[in-house]
Amino acid sequence: MLKGKTVVLGVTGSIAAYKAANLASMLVKLHADVHVIMTKNATNFIHPITFETLTNNKCLVDTFDRNFQYSVEHVALAKKADVMMIAPATANVIGKLAGGIADDMLTTTALACTCPKLIAPAMNTRMFENSIVQDNLKKLTLNDYQVIQPAVGFLACRDEGAGKLPKEEVLLDYILKEIAFEKDMKGLKVLVTAGPTMEAMDPVRYITNHSTGKMGYAVARNCMLRGAEVTLVTGQTSIEKPRFVTVVPIESAREMFEEVTGRAAEQDIIIKAAAVADYRPQTVSDEKVKKGGDHLTLELEKTDDILKYLGEHKKEGQFLCGFSMETEHMLENSRAKLKKKNLDLIVANNLKQAGAGFGTDTNVITMITPEEEISLELMSKEEAAGRILDEILKLRR
Ligand SMILES: Cc1cc2nc3c(=O)[nH]c(=O)nc-3n(C[C@H](O)[C@H](O)[C@H](O)COP(=O)(O)O)c2cc1C
Question: Which residues pair with 322 in a beta bridge?
Fold first, then answer.
């Protein structure tokens, strides 16, 4: 995902410095070229050898070190960098950067960098809340730094509060948002639905389906990484919500209908990947459920057809994509649905095919448009999401 990208990772003298090793490793696994610059004080917390082994690059500490290729290293790295992240960033380094001080390799390189710069403060809560530190952070924000807010929790100093370095996965997502993928969806508003709906039978029980939300979440995340402004309307799932996406949780088909249709007019692209229950119990009461004795009879009624509504109210230039999960006659049924619901694209998968459908991390999809049908081999849901978005962008042109 990060092949050909250069990440400069600045590490400073905070107890959280150990987390930077994991972050460096994650970036390397995504094929980034990672260069770590440490402050001298950071070497008290973690040894440069750790980063050198993980990144295969010399870890820079001393501005006047002669033991590397001849080039003015801080400028060379600053020019090469696609993104610079300082994590953890001490109060000291934040102060120096805000004051334009460049008295070590890290601060000197930061001054020379014109790429996106991300800074993740990590310190004791009292230090973080100190007005001088806050003023310095504001100043950095005004000067092209993106400040990543620290997490709140139990700190190494045994205090509780804001100041924790966010998890490595969170830091990685900030980097990915900047440099993973071409930003070919910048300026586009996308609404994605995902997950199952739950239809209450009584105050305790409900009817639902096997959707895990994985496919829809992968689509939403991919849109976000490609620069779109994403809203995710989601039923209950156990997977982590994608970051940098507006998440709207819902339970029932009715709630999903209201949240989606209420936002539809402002969207450029709508992708419905949720598995919405077709039917819901007609009345929700204790009475109805208990009455049946050994047998439970429920009267069901149709839920709102979200896709049909969206197709009927499609605004000029809006792109509408649906999913179809079939157990038989996949292509015929999907083609009919495409036409009937006025969709621009339908992504079909056969629930009986190995590796496709609910729950799995993979999918086997066929993309159907009024003009063509494209069948893809088995691939991860992330990869499938990327292919679906490529197709949508191609068709919107
Ligand atoms: C055990 C220990 C943990 C520290 N943790 C932090 C920290 O999390 N954040 C911070 O701003 N300073 C922390 N400090 C203080 C910094 O190390 C100190 O201000 C140092 O001058 C920072 O140098 P640097 O910014 O050049 O890396 C810690 C100091 C010690 C001894």
Answer: 272, 346
Give tens-digit pLDDT for 100-159: 999 999 999 999 999 999 999 999 999 999 999 999 999 999 999 999 999 998 877 777
Can you give the three-state secondary structure of 189-243, one letter per residue?
A: EEEEEECECCEECCCCCEECCCCCCHHHHHHHHHHHHCCCEEEEEECCCCCCCCC
Q: Which amino acid is at 4?
A: G
- Tell me 275's DSSP state: B
Ligand 1 atom showing the smallest separation from residue 41 Cα: 27
Angle at 301 between CA 296 and CA 307, to 5 degrees: 135
Residue with the nearest Cα to atom 4 of ligand 1?
14
Q: Is 157 a catalytic residue?
A: yes
Q: State the angle between helix axes of 168-179 and 214-225 in degrees (0 to 180), rounded to the nearest 10.
A: 60
14 lines ligand 1 (CB under 6 A): yes
Query: Helix or strand or coil: residue 283?
Result: coil
- Dihedral (CA of 343, 394, 384, 317) sign: negative
Which residue's alpha carbon is nearest to atom 11 within ligand 1? 90
pLDDT tens digit string along 42-72?
999 999 999 999 999 999 998 887 666 656 6
pTM of this structure: 0.90
